[in-house]
Amino acid sequence: MAGREQKAREGKWNGGFASYGYKLENGELVIAEDEVVIIQMIFERYIHTNDGINGVANYLNNHGYTKKLRQNGTIPGFSSSFIKKIIDNPVYMGKIAYGRRRTEKKTGTRNETHVVEQSEFPVYEGIHEANLDVTDIHYDKKFQIYRDD
C-alpha cells in the first residue's frame, strides 16, 4: 500500500474506474468533455440553489439528463447517492485523496471484512485538471462545500 500512497502524494490516480466526468488516458485523469457539463451542473445547483442532494438528482432526472453508461454497470438516471459521491469527491477540485475507505475485519468473525469510510484522510494536490471553476467554493477537511459569501 505504500506505493499507492506515494502515487497519491505525487498527485497521480491510484487506479480503478475514473470518476464520472473524467476518463483515463495512459493512467492519468483527463476531463471527459461529454460528462463535464453534468458535473458542473451538479455543483452549480448544489451550491447556488436550495435543492440539496435529492433536489439536484430530481432536477437532472426531471429535465431529461442521463448519465453516460460506463463499464461499471451504472444506471442512466441520477440517484441521490451518486450526487453525494460527486459532491464528496475531492478529485473535482483537482485533488487526490488517499485512504477515504479502509477494509477492516468484522469483529467476531474469522475472515469476513467490510469497507469502512474514514473521517480523516490525507488529500494531495493532483496533477489532473480540476473539473470545476473553484472561484466561489472551497472544501473543508471533510469536503463539505461552502460558498465564499
Give a concise summary.
The chain is 28% helix and 20% strand. With 149 residues, it is an alpha+beta fold.
Task: Tell me the strand order in the biggest sheet.
Answer: 1-2
On the 0-100 scale, what is the average pLDDT? 78
Question: How many helices does DSSP assign?
Answer: 4
Which bin fits the share of residues in helices?
A: 25-40%
Q: What string, H for helix and E for strand, traces the elements in order?
A: HEEHHHEEEEEE
Largest sheet: 2 strands, antiparallel
Q: Which terms would index this structure?
A:
single chain; 149 residues; alpha+beta; two-stranded antiparallel ribbon; 4 helices; globular
Question: Can you describe this structure?
Answer:
The protein is of the alpha+beta class. Helix content is 28%, strand content 20%. It contains four helices and eight strands; from the N terminus they run αββαααββββββ. A two-stranded antiparallel sheet has the order 1-2. It has a two-stranded antiparallel ribbon with strand order 3-6. A hairpin with a 5-residue loop joins strand 7 and strand 8. Helix 3 packs across helix 4. The C terminus is likely disordered.
